[in-house]
Amino acid sequence: MDQKNKELAKIFNRIADALEFQGANVFKIIAYRKAARVLDELSQDVEVLSKTNKLSDLPGIGKAIAGKINEYLTTGKMKKYEEVTKDIPGTLFDMLDIQNLGPKTLALAHKKLRVKNLNDLKKAIKNGRLAKLPQMGEKKVENIKQGLDLYERAHERLSIAVAQNVAREIIEYLKKNTEIKDISAAGSLRRWKETVGDIDILTTGKNGAEIIKIFTKFPMTERVLAAGETKSSIIVKGGIQVDLRIVKPKSYGAALQYFTGSKAHNIKLRNIAKSKGLKLSEYGVFKGKKMVAGKTEKEVYKILGLAYVPPELREDRGEVELALKNKIPKFIEMKDIKGDLHMHSTYSDSTATIRQLTDFAWRFNYEYILVTDHSQSAKYAHGLEPKRLYKQWKEIDKINKRSKKSRVLKGVEVDILKSGKLDYPDKILKRCDVVVAAIHQGFTKNVTERICAAMDNPYVDIIAHPTGRLISQREGYAINLHKVMEHAAQTGTWLELNAYPDRLDLNDVYLKIAKEMDIKISIGTDAHSIGALLWMKFGVAQARRGWLEAKNVVNTYSLKKLQTMRKINKNRIE
DNA sequence: GCCGTTTTCGGCCCGACTGTTTTCAGTCG
């Protein structure tokens, strides 16, 4: 989906890399990067915008870049791209990801030492020639070498679940061993981004150097990258980088705002500050030399004339404009969730019995849960043939008899088979309270058509993990998500936001599109253990990042309402 | 290369840290 959007984003980023490498005008580079980001997150098809001459309406895309987009869409090529990348070996671009090795140094090494790839770089380090270049020295080379080590350890972005755990441990450690008052994770972790590059932690305290000394002695520390008075970076076990910043209490809000980002969001804010004759930095909002705000984030936004923007929204996807007009809606929260619509029991491949699932789930004050074990073809997951399914239903009936307040619903996660048929006949699906359908086989075979066919079935309520991606592990199915979403809107089928941290599928950008298309979303944990029921929070955070309000999410509705909203009932009522 | 309630030219967010320097460049966030 949006293949061209992504392709063009990559190309513009590559052009930016090349220009950086050549030492071109910094602002030109920024312009290309911005265009790349806008395209990457665009909720419309770039080809449609191109045909209707609307490209230049997009922020960051002017006449020149619009022209390049049109050129690429019509000819499949872009002269500028070919020109700037002509003399740079492709392998060099990837090397820009090596820490402490920036475009300037890499260009110099390329020019003077003919470094073209990782091996060349290693040689240049070993034989001492890199250290002899101007502005270089032993320590710089040592830092590059360490960056190279990290890079070679397949430095991947962390899943948000892992990052949250590490951050929690460090915060607890610092609280125990130092005299700090305010402390918080910042950065993409605080924005609940699905993956996190490194962990940012912000705190206030009097003796910065002392706090940093203790920070660098965190038991899991592998290496200390920097340790100053107010700022320190360490690498902890697993190659995870953790940055700590210390500010004065009066700057805490401004600093939290600043270090939470995103960068694009912050740049917008700084521009707004400027237009009001103010200056915004991590130390506060200043009018001339006088500090006028900074203790809390709320007052920072307020003095800029903006409504408070929740961290999950801060991606420069229109939230600043909304905040200027004071039109930030009330987004979904954990307390809106009335049930979990995707989980497994020991009947198929989970470690939790239905009894355990219910006991645990009722702690969250849910009104209902939907048990959705795998269907018969999913042999690997001990999928249920009809006989065992009926047995499970009997057990559910028993449990429901005892509970007055909450209800266990009978569901299935029915496989969409390679043939395009569903793994249970309609007469079984008909008897379920809610039906979840999903692809678990044939990831490349007519996936779009098969999912659409499943949505045509009147008993299928939800398509689970619609793209099938596993973050950092597997690309999604070969699927035309545009078509799938259109068909979901037409048939009134709900799409899942799978809260499993490695899935988070649909992602934030598509959720926002789904909202615009008035498609209802179902958040399910896909729990295979009782602990995984807690993952609902990742789903809700992702939903907020996709601008979803409670009304867009079916499991914020009461059970009664939920039932009337099913396809089969809706048709009868409306 | 983008953009406009000072502007169609001249800005473009702002600062910390490090290492190599003798006043600053490169990198990072």
Keywords:
25 helices; 574 residues; alpha/beta; Beta Polymerase, domain 2; Beta Polymerase, domain 3; DNA-binding; globular; 17 strands; 7-stranded parallel beta sheet; DNA polymerase, domain 1; 5-stranded mixed beta sheet
Task: Write up this protein.
The chain is an alpha/beta fold. The radius of gyration is 26 Å and the shape is globular. 44% of the residues lie in helices and 14% in strands. It contains 25 helices and 17 strands. α1 (3-22) crosses α7 (103-113), α13 crosses α15 and α20 packs parallel to α21 (481-491). The longest helix is centred in the N-terminal third of the chain and has 20 residues, at 3-22. Strands 11-12-13-14-15-16-17 form a seven-stranded parallel sheet, covered by helices on one side. A five-stranded mixed sheet has the order 2-4-7-6-5, with helices on both faces. It has a three-stranded antiparallel sheet with strand order 8-9-10. The mean pLDDT is 90. It folds into four domains: 3-154, DNA polymerase beta, N-terminal domain-like (DNA polymerase, domain 1, Orthogonal Bundle), CATH 1.10.150; 158-247, Beta Polymerase, domain 2 (2-Layer Sandwich); 251-324, DNA polymerase, thumb domain (Beta Polymerase, domain 3); 334-569, TIM Barrel, CATH 3.20.20.140. α19 links the parallel β13 (407-415) and β14 (434-438). The structure holds one DNA strand of 29 nucleotides.
